[in-house]
Write a structure and sequence with these properties.
single chain, 392 residues, alpha/beta, Rossmann fold, 7-stranded mixed sheet, 6-stranded parallel sheet, 13 strands
Length: 392
């Protein structure tokens, strides 16, 4: 028996796949999009080392999720046959679907189905909400276990996708077990080389530095904190449609002095930055699908033990006080930072963050899904009549 993760494209799914592979045999399926994907049958073995998992790259028709290409691509039969060819025990093997667009595969897969959803897909820009809702309904109907990243996504599945509540296991985002230090970190670590010249205290922002961050708020916050340094760790290549927010990001990028944009970093290196910051900042806008999601950066900063300030851009964060201090305006952030500085840049919660992070790892998330699926399948087997009873 082998678990199949369809698909392991994003770093968050790769982290989950890697953690899952330390518990059960796993194949992570990674799509390679092309305009000739419907006629391409080549599958390539790929072994990822960071994070570590065994994968296979498979051809996928560009536009496969939209009519009329979706009808021509025959995604369900083609991908089901492709996965089955790699697994002689597919009738026993769980399939983890990570997007509603794989509903046609889930409906044909002979083994158990897990629907693992990291976002409120129906709120994505450019999607057809009615189509996504139909696909979510189909996947929830055939899934043995449905694992949304947040309670808000779970509520959507029950309310609009008709999912049975007893199928749902909320599985938030997480951090690597290796990111948790052997003991609590009472002080920040040395700054990485590319920001080592920044005077302390250093405020750190990590992640995809894109439209889900409140750049207008950040520009004001930088202006109001001349005695603090700012480090922005992450790519800035994603476009921002709003002119004001786009301009604010660009003006910050062009600033000199106590502000630094490092560019993107491999996921495995992010913890060295998180541990080095005096304070972590989570500056998200309140909009969908971000608001209904799970904040991966929170869990990485939790493991680093440093004080965390965040906006109410994730509903999830509003349930994590006092491990994160929430603010709505630049002025509130400045007030909190000055109070923190008066206490020597420590809020006294380092031990609580370290303790909390022990159960917030990818390994814990993967184990919870394996256990929950086993319980679901055992329960369904117990409800089936014995063969003799069926004959009778």
């Amino acid at each position: 028996m082998m678990w199949h993760v369809l698909d392991a494209r994003s770093i968050w799914i790769q982290e989950f796949t890697s953690a899952l592979s330390r518990i059960v045999p796993v194949l992570g399926w990674i799509p390679k999009f092309s305009w000739t994907g419907v006629t391409d049958a080549r599958v390539e073995e790929r072994t990822s080392t960071d994070p570590a998992f065994r994968g296979r790259v498979f051809p996928l028709q560009r536009g496969y999720s939209r009519a009329p290409i979706s009808w021509l691509a025959r995604t369900g039969p083609r991908l089901t046959a492709m996965l089955s060819d790699a697994d002689k025990e597919s009738k026993m093997s769980p399939l983890v679907c990570t997007t509603p667009y794989y509903a046609p595969v889930a409906e044909l897969w002979p083994g158990p189905i897990v629907y693992y959803q990291t976002d409120l897909t129906i709120a994505y820009a450019g999607v057809d909400p009615d189509q996504v809702r139909r696909l979510d309904r189909r996947l929830c109907a055939v899934a043995h276990l449905v694992c949304p990243n947040s309670r808000r996504i779970a509520d959507y599945f029950v309310r609009e996708a008709g999912c049975a509540p007893d199928k749902i296991l909320v599985v938030p985002q997480a951090t690597r077990r290796a990111n948790i230090a052997p003991e609590p970190l009472p002080e920040p670590s040395p700054l990485p080389a590319d920001i080592a010249d920044l005077p302390r205290p250093v405020l750190g922002v990590m992640g995809n530095l894109a439209d889900n961050m409140d750049w207008s708020l950040l520009e004001d916050a930088v202006r109001l904190t001349p005695d603090f340094s700012w480090a922005f760790v992450g790519p800035t290549n994603m476009p921002i449609p709003d002119l004001e927010r786009r301009g604010a990001r660009q003006r910050l990028i062009e600033r000199t002095g106590r502000i630094r944009f490092t560019g993107g970093k491999p996921y495995g290196q992010l913890q060295s930055y998180a541990r080095a910051f005096n304070v972590a900042i989570l500056p998200y806008r309140k909009h969908e699908p971000t608001f209904s999601g799970s904040c991966t950066r929170f869990y990485e900063h939790l493991a680093a033990c440093r004080p965390i300030f965040g906006t109410r851009g994730f509903a999830e964060l509003m349930e994590r006080e006092p491990l994160v201090q929430l603010f709505d305006t630049p002025e509130e952030l400045v007030t909190g930072l000055e109070q923190l500085r008066a206490r020597g840049m420590s809020d006294g919660l380092e031990l609580r963050r370290w303790t909390a992070s022990q159960s917030e790892t990818w390994e814990v998330r993967a184990a919870s899904i394996v256990d929950a699926l086993a319980q679901r399948l055992d329960g369904e087997s117990a409800l089936q009549p014995a063969a003799a009873e069926v004959t009778a």
